Structure formats: structure tokens, C-alpha cells
Amino acid sequence: MTPSHLMSRADLDFLLHDWLRVSELTGRERYADHSRETIEAVLDLSAELAETYFAPHFRKADLTEPRLVGEEVELIPEIGEALAKFAEADLVGAAMDSRVGGLQLPYTAYLACMAWFYAANISTAAYPLLTTGNANLLLTHGSDEQIRKYVEPMIQGRFTGTMCLSEPHAGSNLADITTRAEPQPDGTYRLFGQKMWISGGEHQMAENIVHLVLAKVPGSPPGTRGISLFIVPKFLVDDDGSLGERNDIVITGLNHKMGFRGTVNTMPTLGQGMHAPGGRPGAVGYLVGEENTGLKKMFTMMNEARLGVGLGATAIGYTGYLKSLDYARNRPQGRPAGADPSTPQVMLTRHTDVRRMLLAQKSYVEGALALGLFCARLVDDEKTGTPEESTAAKTLLDVLTPIAKSWPSQWCLKANELAVQVLGGAGYTIDYDVEQHYRDNRLNPIHEGTHGIQGQDLLGRKVVAGGGAGLAALTGRITATCDRAATAGGVVAELASLLRPRVTRLIEVTTALAEVGATDPEAFLADATEYLEATGHVVIAWIWIEQLLALGDRVTAVTAAGAGAGGDGEGGARDAGGAGDGASASDAFAAGKLRAAEYFLRRELPIVDAKFDLLVAGDRTTLDMRDDWF
């Protein structure tokens, strides 16, 4: 496998430099030690490490699941070796503050680097994803002592981190968790309970594991208002940073999964008495911040994790696309309709239906990658922009986060499905990676907030927050893009004209639904998933117009050469696939972008019309369905 079968460096460079202009961020104080050269060097390093240490055990980690032996979990050694190389390269803290050992790399560049690892082996890359999320939460909400004891060792790669939210009876509904935290005279807490679905909960790849645990203190308010957040390390950490007693948190079972098998998924039990720190049972926990503020703090980690999940889904879809494209380019099969049967077979890419499947994948994965990196740029602007830029970035990021998590999780999974189909029977075997990519990616619409929960978050909170400020920010940006496209003229203006009326419709539908919500909250959210999916398609269409505008005159050039609307099919296939017929790589890249944008705007965007119609019709088919009718 080569890096070109993991991600497209040309696409990453275009998005980072031509569109998002990430080098401009180095003019800001936080990123002053970086330049385009350092950013590209870290990208080069990430691609090399992903290919050399992550990709080779992609299949082995799937076939050799984690094993629980006593209290310990056994994993294949290649996972630990890959994570050690990742830590040695200072990538755990790449985007974190230099004061704690981080590199202060722009978050936009950091996510682009992580795409390589997610594409190479998502189940191994999940460990640093969880660890960085854990560390960032403590950097935001932890005390200086907590940062020294737990964050700095995580950045060094000595400790790893988890997030312990769900319980056997309380998955998405955290209001019903029962893990309790009993205050102690010394200011610590003793935790008792059981958690479920905890990734990275036990292994031997680090000196310590830092669990962030949601629990309730006796007498706390009911529901989510009474949730507090605690650090519960596997080993207690002494004041000098050395490891102390084994804490009373043990793994009592593993979950065996459809995919993501290299990421151990555990059932931790706290306070069972298997260990007795300080001579008595109970897992020792350290409160983060104040009591009853835990869920709000955890969302710091969860919002970051949601962007990571979306990018992970994108990367899995992207590598599946590239691998199916490579197969189709090298697999002779059949002949065009009407061809002489005595002539040689042609490659799969010569068949129109295969082109359709490849073009659909391209439109999904390249659109999703652009969205993910755009959201990362908003994170950078929120952190380092002027007060006005920071506020605007946060408003837009809040409304885009559920889309950036859910849209790639849905549509890059669809890309993986199409990749299997391109390979045909071969794609259904373990001899090719695409079937595992599908299984791995199937998790992403589920964890870190299910697809349905993202819809409720978008419609029920994000677009109506601040009197509709989030929706206004989003639609204002999209409308401004359409205005720029109209000025540019040509095919870009034509495609933007397909988007503009859908933006108007989005505003109208949201307004109508908000009126329903004033009197019937259940009906308001009944079809929140339909709203999420329609809005997501509008957003991706906007992102595609943005990419065409960033290409500038290159779109005009390839359109004049016949690669855009009205060009012949064979020329378009060559442009989408490679340089072909003497065309430059730059022309082929631009032509491929244009064709993918055309595909999405003409063939995918129209599906939102039926969804918008359904939403304003107030259809009650699902709402009025009864349990005994199933």
C-alpha cells in the first residue's frame, strides 16, 4: 500500500493552502513558530508514519481481537509499536499549548495530519484521538496539579485517556446514570458503579490510563444537572509524578464488535473491591471543577470527538474510494455496448455505471473532507481570531458540528458500500480492504452521539439558539458564496443557481418547524433526522461551490477544454482519473473537482426537496405509530 491509496495529498494541499489558506494562521501569535514549510513537514511525517506503522497491521488487528486475561487486556504488539512512534513524533500534543509540551500546530493542519492515520488504521488511531480529547478537556477545566499529573504524561505518550459516560442501562440518555461518587474527608471521592462501551479502557501500552468518569454525588439534583466529572486513574499518581497504588477500577468484560476491532471496548467496574487503595474498596476519583457541572465539561471533549469522528468517517470513506478506483483502473472486464466481442476487454472505469459509483464516492469523500477541515479552521479562528472573528467562528461552528459528525458518518459509509460494489464479488471477501472499511465505518453513525441525536441537537438547539443566530450565520455564509459564484459566472454560477433556492427553502422550513415547536415539542423533533440530512446536503453543496471558487481560473480552463458541463463522457472520465491525453495533473485535478461538484449539485442536492416537503407537511406517520402495530 502506498500513501496515495490512503489519502490524496493533492487534495489536502489544495484544501489547506488554496482554499483555507492555513499558512495565514502562522501570522497569529499562537502559531508564529510555524510556516507552510513546517506544516508540510508534519504532513509528510504523518503520511510516512501512517504507511509504515499503522497500515501494515490494519487487517491483523481486525482478525486478532483483544483478549481479556484476568484483569489485563492483550492486544497485538503492532498497535503499541505504532502508538509509540506516534508519541515519539510529538503528535499527541501537536495542537496543544507549548507550555505543556505541545507543538501549537494549527488545528486545521493537525486534523489534516490525523486523516492519514484514520485512513491507514482507524482502530489504532482511535487511542490518540481519545487521549487528546481527554487532555484538552483537562487543559480547559482541570487544575494546575491535574494538568501536571495527567495531561503532561499523556502528551508525552506515557499515559492514555478515556471518556467513561455510558452505563449498561444508560447509553444516550445520561440523565439516568447511577455511578455514584462519595465525598471523602481528604477532598477525594470514592466511585462505585459500572460503565459500558468504554474504548481503550484497559491495555498494557502505557504506564497509566486516565479515565474521565461521569458520576453523581449523593444528594445532587436529578437528571443531567446532577452529573459531576472525575479523574479516575488506573494507578494513583503521587505528588512527584510517580505511580502509586492500583486503583479500584477493573475491566469485567469486553464487547466484541463488527469493526474497529483493534480498539478494545470495555466494561469497567468501579468500587468492586478487587483493589483497595488506601486499604479499602472504592475507586479514588478527583473532581474536575465543581460538582454538578460534569456534563457541560464533558461536552468540551465530546464536541472535539465529534469532529474527530466525522473526519475518521471521511478518511475511511476516502481510502475505500481510492482503493476501489485503483482496482477499477486495473481490472479488465467486458466491453462497451456495441463493441466487437473479439476486441480486448476494457478496464472497469470505461463502464458508465462504474464511473457513476466512483463519482458518487468522490463527491461524498472530497466534500466531507473539505467540511471537516473547514470546521477545523473555525476552531482556529475561535481560538486566535479577533473578538469579532472568534464570536462569528463559534456561532458557525456550533451549528456545523452535528453536521460535520453525522454527514460523513452517513455518506462516507455509503461510499464504502459503493467501493465494495465496484469490486464486485472480490469486494465481499477479506482479500480486499474495502469490506473491512465498511465494517469499521459502520460505527461512526452510532458513537459520540447517534445520528438521530445529532438531528435533535441541530434542530432542537443549534439552529434556534440565540434567536436563530446559528441558522442566520450559516445561510448568510452560503448566500454570500452564491453571490460570489454569480459574479464568477460560467458553470460555477450555474451550479450555485441550483443551491440558492434550497437555502431559501431551508430558512422557510426551519421557521415553520419552530412555530410547531412552540406548541408541540414532540412533533417539532419527530423528523429531526430528515432535517439533519437535508441541511447536511445543502451544506455539502455549499462546500463544493466554495472549492470551485478556490480553483478560480482553473475551472474556466477545464470548462473551455470540455471537462465541464457539455464535455464528452470519455474526456470527463480521463480528467477524473488522471492526467490522460497529455493534460497536466493540475488540469486533471480541477476537472475532477468540477465533475464531482456537478454530480453532487445535479444528482444529490435535489433529494432535499422531498425532505423539505415532508417536514412542512407535518406528516404524523411515525409519530402516531403504536408499539402494538409493529
UniProtKB/TrEMBL annotation:
InterPro entries: Acyl-CoA_dh-like_C_dom (IPR025878), Acyl-CoA_Oxase/DH_mid-dom (IPR006091), Acyl-CoA_Oxase/DH_mid-dom_sf (IPR046373), AcylCo_DH-like_C (IPR036250), AcylCo_DH/oxidase_C (IPR009075), AcylCoA_DH/ox_N (IPR013786), AcylCoA_DH/ox_N_sf (IPR037069), AcylCoA_DH/oxidase_NM_dom_sf (IPR009100). GO terms for molecular function: flavin adenine dinucleotide binding; oxidoreductase activity, acting on the CH-CH group of donors. Its cofactor is FAD. Keywords: FAD, Flavoprotein, Oxidoreductase. Residues 475-625 form the Acetyl-CoA dehydrogenase-like C-terminal domain. It comes from the Bacteria. Residues 292-456 form the Acyl-CoA dehydrogenase/oxidase C-terminal domain. Residues 38-157 form the Acyl-CoA dehydrogenase/oxidase N-terminal domain. Pfam families: Acyl-CoA_dh_1, Acyl-CoA_dh_C, Acyl-CoA_dh_M, Acyl-CoA_dh_N. SUPFAM superfamilies: Acyl-CoA dehydrogenase C-terminal domain-like, Acyl-CoA dehydrogenase NM domain-like. Belongs to the acyl-CoA dehydrogenase family. This is Acyl-CoA dehydrogenase. It comes from Dietzia lutea.
